[in-house]
Amino acid sequence: MPILSTPSLYTTIEWLALGVSIVIIALIARRVFGSRRKEINAKWYTRNGVYPLTKMERDFYVLLRRYFGDDTIILSQVPLICLAQPKARPDTEVFRRLKYKIDRMRLDFVILRSTGSVECIIELDGDSHQTKAQRRLDKERDRFLTELGYDIFRYTHKNGTPLSKERVYRFLDQYFE
Questions:
Q1: Which domain range does residue 11 map to?
Q2: For burial by CB atoms within 10 Å, which of 30, 35, 63, 170 has the most?
């Protein structure tokens, strides 16, 4: 007597073919749909014409570049997370929560020494920094950066008025003479 009868043999082969077909379809679907989630394609976006720096920040950057010369590295819009890492282990929830608190914060300008270490941080305070809530946040961030050992300088400027080269240089001379 045969081990497998003819009807059960066809059923086994059909089930095997169905299983292989499902695996092939799943692999094709993963290839087609899975790659779209990971891929960044320029045809899905358009340039919005927004500059990474405000006009005041661009003008201030030019004055910083002239003041310090070409041998100083000036970084703009630096993520705070580049200067401060949570002490917790990276694979923990504590690390993720601490990182989330500072992840989206940006520093207007970071001045680097020739060695690559941070000389100081310069923050521009326009009209948006005049509210009580924003002043509290600025004070908290200044305290945080100072406790980490960074020197932070705030330049207050009224939005809409042109930057004065003399006023900016006087501000810089206070700290860099």
A1: 6-44
A2: 63
Does residue 164 lie within any of the structural domains?
yes
CB neighbours of residue 70 within 10 Å: 7
**CA-closest candidate to residue 172, choices 149, 159, 155:** 155
Q: Are 83 and 109 in contact (CB under 8 A)?
A: no
In a domain, 50, yes or no: no
* pLDDT tens-digit map of 8-55: 556 778 878 888 888 888 888 777 666 555 566 666 666 666 677 888
> How far is Cα 135 from Cα 151, in angstroms, rounded to an integer?
18
Q: At which residue do the structure tokens 């169905």 appear?
A: 18
Angstrom distance (rounded) from CA 24 to CA 19: 9
State the Cα–Cα distance between residues 41 and 34, nearest whole angstrom. 14
* In a shared domain, residues 125 and 145: yes
Round to the nearest angstrom and report the end-to-end CA distance of the chain.
Answer: 102
Q: What is the pTM of this model?
A: 0.67
CB 105 within 8 A of CB 141: yes
Q: In what order do the strands lie in the sheet with 118-125?
A: 73-79, 106-112, 118-125, 152-156
Q: Which residues on adjacent β-strands are paired with residue 79?
A: 106
